[in-house]
Amino acid sequence: MDMMHIMHACIYLPYVIMISKQIKQDDSVHMIITDYCMPEMSGYELLKRVKESAELREIPVVLMSSENSPTRIRRCLEEGAEEFLIKPVRASDVSRLCSRLVSTCRR
Description:
Blueprint: H1 3-11, H2 13-20, E1 32-35, H3 43-52, E2 61-65, H4 70-79, E3 83-86, H5 91-106
Parallel strand pairs: 1-2, 2-3
């Protein structure tokens, strides 16, 4: 699977997790990648819920937005985001995230 397919698969994962509100013990989530602007919940709210959850808090969360807002970025990073990407996402961003995902999976 190439890097862009991985990104597409990961982008929708957090929304599915929050809708189901249950993660089976045998499911492996290694990274959550989400847009900042989503229907019903912002990426910041999702980040806070993940970091407040005993089951999910260790999962790295990456947010992305087309708006380069230093205040928004700083707030997300202070709340525990692994990274905040500005769209359009570049190939180098995807490569860096894939490297992190691979190293996380090896732990």
